[in-house]
Every structure is written in C-alpha cells, then in structure tokens.
C-alpha cells in the first residue's frame, strides 16, 4: 500500500498540481494587493469612498461587504483572465514550433522510406 501511495504522490500530475496550488497562493497575494491598493482606491474615487464595507449598510444588513466582494471577484477574475491570455501567448509559439519540428521529422522519415522502396 505504501508503494502505491508513493507512486501516486510522485506522479507528474500530482506534482504539477502541487506546484500550481503553491503558485496560485503566491499569485493570489499579487492580485489581492492589486485589487486592494490600486483598483479599489480608483473605484473609491468614483464613489467618494474606498471602503464600501464600512459605510454601506441599512438596517444592520451590510450590503456593502457583499458589493465589495462582487467587485473584488470580478477584478480578480479579469486579472487572471489577462494573465492566462499573456501566458498562453508566450507558451504557445514554443509548442507550435515543437509540433512543426516533430511533423517535419515524421515527414522526413516517410520520405526516406518511400525513397528506399
């Protein structure tokens, strides 16, 4: 049973997932700082205050916290979308180049086989 667990834990997918979780946690700090320190103050300038959660409430219902959570989520989702778009742009050319090289090798082998017949 220990051997099975060791094989599972050391598989590439599990290690990749672990790295992704750690990187995601680190990236979360960057995005949170972006939202709290740059974007929310700019939005606060439009509404006259930075902290919706503190002053936006009625009858004990703190709807400002809910509004701020929605705004935070939308900003984080958009920031991640932009980050993934940029990452895909950087990574994709290398993948396409590798695929072209692999196809070229296969076609060269086919050509050589046909030539030898």
Automatic annotation (TrEMBL):
<keyword id="KW-0407">Ion channel</keyword>
<dbReference type="Pfam" id="PF01741">
    <property type="entry name" value="MscL"/>
</dbReference>
<dbReference type="InterPro" id="IPR001185">
    <property type="entry name" value="MS_channel"/>
</dbReference>
<dbReference type="InterPro" id="IPR036019">
    <property type="entry name" value="MscL_channel"/>
</dbReference>
<comment type="similarity">
    <text>Belongs to the MscL family.</text>
</comment>
<comment type="function">
    <text>Channel that opens in response to stretch forces in the membrane lipid bilayer. May participate in the regulation of osmotic pressure changes within the cell.</text>
</comment>
<keyword id="KW-0813">Transport</keyword>
<dbReference type="InterPro" id="IPR019823">
    <property type="entry name" value="Mechanosensitive_channel_CS"/>
</dbReference>
<dbReference type="GO" id="GO:0005886">
    <property type="term" value="C:plasma membrane"/>
</dbReference>
<feature type="transmembrane region" description="Helical">
    <location>
        <begin position="12"/>
        <end position="31"/>
    </location>
</feature>
<comment type="subunit">
    <text>Homopentamer.</text>
</comment>
<dbReference type="InterPro" id="IPR037673">
    <property type="entry name" value="MSC/AndL"/>
</dbReference>
<keyword id="KW-1003">Cell membrane</keyword>
<feature type="transmembrane region" description="Helical">
    <location>
        <begin position="65"/>
        <end position="84"/>
    </location>
</feature>
<dbReference type="GO" id="GO:0008381">
    <property type="term" value="F:mechanosensitive monoatomic ion channel activity"/>
</dbReference>
<keyword id="KW-0406">Ion transport</keyword>
<keyword id="KW-0472">Membrane</keyword>
<keyword id="KW-1133">Transmembrane helix</keyword>
<protein>
    <recommendedName>
        <fullName>Large-conductance mechanosensitive channel</fullName>
    </recommendedName>
</protein>
<keyword id="KW-0812">Transmembrane</keyword>
């Amino acid at each position: 049973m220990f051997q099975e667990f060791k094989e599972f834990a050391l598989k590439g997918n599990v290690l990749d997932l672990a790295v992704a979780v750690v990187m995601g946690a680190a990236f979360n700090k960057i995005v949170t700082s972006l939202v709290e320190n740059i974007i929310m103050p700019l939005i606060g300038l439009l509404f006259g205050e930075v902290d919706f959660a503190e002053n936006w409430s009625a009858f004990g219902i703190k709807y400002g916290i809910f509004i701020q959570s929605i705004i935070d989520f939308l900003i984080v989702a958009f920031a991640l979308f932009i980050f993934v778009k940029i990452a895909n742009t950087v990574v994709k050319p290398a993948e396409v180049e590798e695929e072209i090289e692999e196809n070229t090798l296969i076609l060269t082998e086919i050509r050589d086989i046909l030539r030898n017949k």
